[in-house]
């Protein structure tokens, strides 16, 4: 009995193959946690070989660093878009936009898994685990400072430090800690929002 030939697998460009691997890694991170983000698991999900992923990322640690950078770039791009929209049209500024910034940062570390991924990488001995995230955040702060003036740099960095520390801590301990203190689950987000909107330099960004 004749067999039906399998459809030929489309050849992906190096960029497409890398993007597909990062998307699969992101899905594995959300579904099963950072320990599931391995070269073997990602290769199996996208129908590629272990050697193919080694070519793109060098190692499992390299894959995890690339994923961390991708997650950070995604959230920082969206924050930058919010700020650019606010500057382009004064009428578009609203009280909801600072809340969106806080939610984007907290969701990146919590729902998107960046906090768990960074912690896992550090515990696994990857001393440079946070570098990709920090690099992207630094670029965002510098981008805002160029628009608002260099004198904003220090305060923006302080605001960013506070927001990122709170977002990462909330991703790791927020639910249990809020419950033990009899506070709402979003208490840390509300605190972060109050701190940021009370900052003179943050007010200058949003008008």
List the helices and strands and how they pair.
Blueprint: H1 14-32, H2 39-46, H3 50-57, H4 60-88, H5 96-109, H6 114-123, H7 131-148, H8 153-180, H9 187-197, H10 200-206
Helix pairs in contact: 1-2, 2-3, 3-4, 4-5, 4-6, 4-7, 5-8, 5-9, 7-8, 8-9
Give a written overview of the molecule.
With 207 residues, the protein is mainly α. It contains ten helices and no strands. The mean pLDDT is 83. The longest helix has 29 residues, at 60-88.
Give a brief rundown of this model.
The chain is mainly α. The protein has helices at residues 14-32, 39-46, 50-57, 60-88, 96-109, 114-123, 131-148, 153-180, 187-197, 200-206.
Give the tags.
207 residues; mainly alpha; 10 helices; 73% helix; globular
Order of helices and strands: HHHHHHHHHH
Question: Which runs of at least 5 residues are low in confidence (pLDDT < 50)?
Answer: none
How far apart the termini lie comes to 74 Å
| Biggest sheet architecture | none
Secondary structure class reads mainly alpha
Mean pLDDT: 83
Number of helix segments? 10
């Amino acid at each position: 009995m004749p067999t039906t030939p399998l459809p030929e697998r489309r050849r992906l460009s190096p960029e497409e193959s890398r993007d597909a691997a990062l998307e699969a890694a992101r899905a594995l991170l959300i579904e099963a946690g950072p320990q599931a983000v391995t070269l073997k698991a990602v290769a199996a999900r996208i129908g590629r070989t272990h050697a193919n992923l080694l070519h793109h990322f060098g190692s499992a640690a390299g894959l995890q660093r690339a994923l961390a950078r991708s997650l950070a770039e995604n959230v920082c791009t969206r924050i930058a878009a919010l700020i650019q929209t606010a500057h382009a049209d004064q009428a578009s500024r609203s009280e909801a936009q600072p809340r969106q910034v806080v939610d984007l940062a907290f969701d990146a570390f919590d729902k998107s898994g960046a906090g768990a991924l960074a912690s896992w990488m550090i515990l696994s001995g990857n001393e440079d685990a946070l570098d990709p995230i920090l690099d992207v955040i630094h670029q965002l702060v510098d981008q805002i400072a160029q628009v608002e003036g260099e004198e904003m740099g220090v305060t923006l960095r302080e605001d960013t430090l506070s927001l990122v520390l709170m977002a990462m801590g909330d991703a790791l301990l927020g639910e249990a800690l809020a419950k033990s203190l009899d506070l709402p689950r979003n208490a840390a987000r509300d605190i972060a929002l109050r701190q940021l909107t009370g900052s003179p330099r943050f007010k200058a960004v949003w008008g």
